[in-house]
Predict the structure.
Amino acid sequence: MNYIQEHTDKDYPRNIEAEQVVLGSALLEPNLTMPVIVDKKLLPEHFYERRHQYIFEAMLKLYVDAKPCDIVILANALEDAGTMEMSGGRMYLNQLLDRTTTTASLKHFVDIIRHKNTLRELIHAGERIEELGFDEIHEVNEVFSEANQIISSVSLPQDTPPYERIGGEMSEHLEKLERISADGGGVVGVPSGFSELDKLTSGFRDSDLVIIAARPGVGKSSLATSIVRRAAMAGYKAGFFSLEMSKEQILNRLICAEGKINLQHLRTGRLGMDEWRKLTDVAGRISQANIFVNSSPENSLIDIVVKARMMKEREDIDILFIDYLQLITIPGYSRSRENEVAEISRTLKKLAMELDISVVALSQLNRNTESRSKDKRPTLADLRESGAIEQDADMVIFIYRDDYYSDANEMDEVIVPTELIVAKQRNGPIGRVYVSFHKVFVDFYPNVYLSPADEARFAFKPKMEYNNN
């Protein structure tokens, strides 16, 4: 265990009396006090004095082992651990017990210990950030990223109930179900803008980690910007982290998709009069949309976490997109890339739960699909570094296009059939939805945008298989 070192040159925040009262209370009435102390999430490292850390560590071990924590058994435990002398000896244990006459204010003194420890952690964080600031070797972006990581590592003491009665929020839950029913049912979370997909998924739900995966060039970013645009136009607030597209490129895609404007014409300045009229009309709508973008390619995992918290706190975003997962890094991570991706996916899932929004992360597929001779539709095993991503994701959606694997003539088609394959859905059915990809507008559209002849090719054929994993 790493213990906080005591300093003699600085007057660090501490309350030795509070520490003694808590330890004395645990000795005086262990059966009553230890459950309270454990529920308050007090740890040995929260104590300032080294000897108190050793004593409380021994108390915790006795409690976990369901052994009584009286002064005799505690002393024996410290002797067995070889920490009796560092704990102040038997005489000090007796002093702790003698100084405690009541356990009535136990919670108050535990809060004091946690509060002082948090202040010390902030001071230590500031000292480490100060050292980074004086080190002029590293780039400013690297220093800023590490400073953010240091600050984020400081946890605020929070009380959470150990459990809750399931029916405690029943009235609120019934109100939510009534609202869903009044709206026509179906979509519970943020809608994708594709009605058949929303029928299958009920939208992107709060606290869910959603993975949208495909081979390079199939349209991951296009699908993400399409969903972001449709959600924003419907009144939702969307955050978007892009690690490979600039803000200008994202804006161009949004404009062309919304106005059905040729992206290549926009990029090269060869817009016709009709396209210019569409552009001016669409620009006003896009400018009013609540889409908040960060397009820095230097974003590390901690950068994304910190900035996502800011987006939620300041803008109250409803959904967050990250393009894409394999471009995220953890500075200084020394283990394998597979372990790094596992840490990234776990963190994104925790972020979704913390912010209570859906986090949609785009992901690459490996080359397995291209090596298959017949059906090249992706499966969960095709996810790059698939183990952790598949495990952490609440939903996995694959994008599949036949033309990606076809000859040159078929690749010349402007509008191509596309399958959105819901391969995993923790709380719902899996299945397949047919949409269309428009190569000129670089966007996905529901079947309603196609001609009657093409409509038959994209007829919705749900495959209602339930996945209970």
